[in-house]
Design brief:
12-stranded antiparallel β-barrel, 18 strands, 317 residues, two-stranded antiparallel ribbon, Outer membrane phospholipase (ompla), Chain C, 8% helix
Length: 317
Amino acid sequence: MKRLLFILLISTTFIASAQEADTSHWKFKGLTSLNFTQVYLNNWAAGGQNSVAMNSLLNINANYKKDKHIWENRLDLAYGLVSQGGQDFQKTDDRIDLLSKYGREAFGSKHWFFSALLNFKSQFAEGYNLPDDSTVISEFMAPGYIMASIGFDYKKNENLSIYISPLTSKFTFVNNQQLADAGAFGVEKAVFDAMGNKTKDGENLRAEFGGSVNILWTQNLMENVTFSSRLELFSNYLDNPDHIDVFLEGILAMKINDFLSANITANVIYDHDIDILERDGKGNPKLDEEGNQIIGPRTQLKEVFSLGIQYTFGNAK
């Protein structure tokens, strides 16, 4: 919670400062939503379990445009919890995503820009190796990602942006020594002697250098129905450049009235540096023919449907 309040304070301070500086060239918009689900059963013949679920979302955009200069900023925060059958709450969504991109008109065109981009991603809370709820597999800044790049941005209109960077630095932070020692998220793992004693700590930082592509697209499908998508591709020039990291997000937003909305969010992630243990339908690890656990890079999928209270604010159309 302290991390959430801190990030909200930073974003609010940034917007307030920008408004004081020159509001005529700024456009602000934001969206916040809270969705709550509760199920109570007593002597219910059909069976089932009591459950409580909550999902929250905050999206803030602050964009500046003057003469040949543009500066786009976006903050996405999401957090969700569920408790079923009286068990402890488990998170279903957890995201911190801050992106800032500056551009200056290039080649005498209003559609091309020399640009620089900075992106930070992490999460708020600890994640566990469920059904094992005692083994931590992630937490704030474990992992944390910072990507900095320079390149060219093609903006056909406000709905489409294609950013291409041949010079991109990607930094992966793992500020949990146990995870770092295990080599989680692609960092260099710890070194142990023949007796199992650690002789060198695992690295807490992995630095990569390569090229990236970032595509943003938004389209109004019909009245009060909007689809937006974001595609990020990254190739590490120095290590297996043919292994492309992929981040794909699609959001279908349906506005019911001024305060009610429904949203469907889908994410697809592939990172060759992240090893994932395969499990069967009961949560047990899968084994190969030799009895070893099957672990390696996998395509990660997530889908979230939410229906609840939503409020939009700002001066952007």
